[in-house]
Amino acid sequence: HLTTSLPLSSEGDHLRPRIDLIVFVIDIKSKYSLKNVEASLAHVDASFFLGKVCFLVTGVGRVNYCSVDMNAIWKLGEVYCSPVLYCELELEGIRNATAQRLLRMLQICAGHIPGVSALSFGTLMRNSSND
């Protein structure tokens, strides 16, 4: 399910499936994209920041067209204790690898991978990004 901003409409609450993972997409070519994500973060329950939120930064192959301060994105990841993934959606190989990574994250967050919790996965992601 996709939405362009939060909060979600209360219409259809009874039909909405459980939310296992929230992926905030930030296009580095658009300052509006980052502002929209920052505004939406206030509407996310604090419990989701325990391994069920990540930031996906797109357009990283076009750093010359960057409109977003990369330090601001890193700070979001740190403040919200959530992993930051970088990708270039225009390259098929990277797009497929990113989709596989997100799918694996979703499987973990939904509890489909025995022995790995969303909280421990989030910690592993942060530790590996620091290396």
Automatic annotation (TrEMBL):
Listed Pfam families: CENP-M
Family annotation (InterPro entries): Centromere_Cenp-M (IPR020987), P-loop_NTPase (IPR027417)
Gene Ontology CC terms, in alphabetical order: chromosome, centromeric region; nucleus
Subcellular localization(s) per the UniProt record: Chromosome, Centromere; Nucleus
Location (main, coarse): nucleus
Alphabetized UniProt keyword annotations: Centromere, Chromosome, Nucleus
Top-rank taxon: Eukaryota
Protein name as it appears in the record: Centromere protein M
Species annotation: Nycticryphes semicollaris
Taxonomic lineage of the native organism: Eukaryota, Metazoa, Chordata, Craniata, Vertebrata
